[in-house]
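Appendix B. Raw example, untouched.
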Amino acid sequence: MKGPFMADSTQMAFRALADPTRRDILHLLSQQDMTIADVSTRFDMTRAAVKKHLTVLSDGGLITITPRGRERINSINPAGFAPALSWFEFFDNFWDENLNALKAAIEKDKE
């Protein structure tokens, strides 16, 4: 179920980020672009399992997959993180405002 503040792109980004293996793959791809085979050598799982993880990351907009001949090059997509960052920024601002109000109330009571 989608909440009132969660757009589809945000939902898909968080779904992609939810799995520790996918977060590890993102870390690898932040260092360099990789093929499915390159990523597969770094994990103890089948190539098909790695491909599924890469598909979820692509669906979440966090990576791009570019065909190059018979290979598919996986690259991090920095812009794809924007929906998740925006969601966090909303709550960061919410807590800043509320904590500042609490601080002001406490300081007022001290006077």
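End of appendix B.
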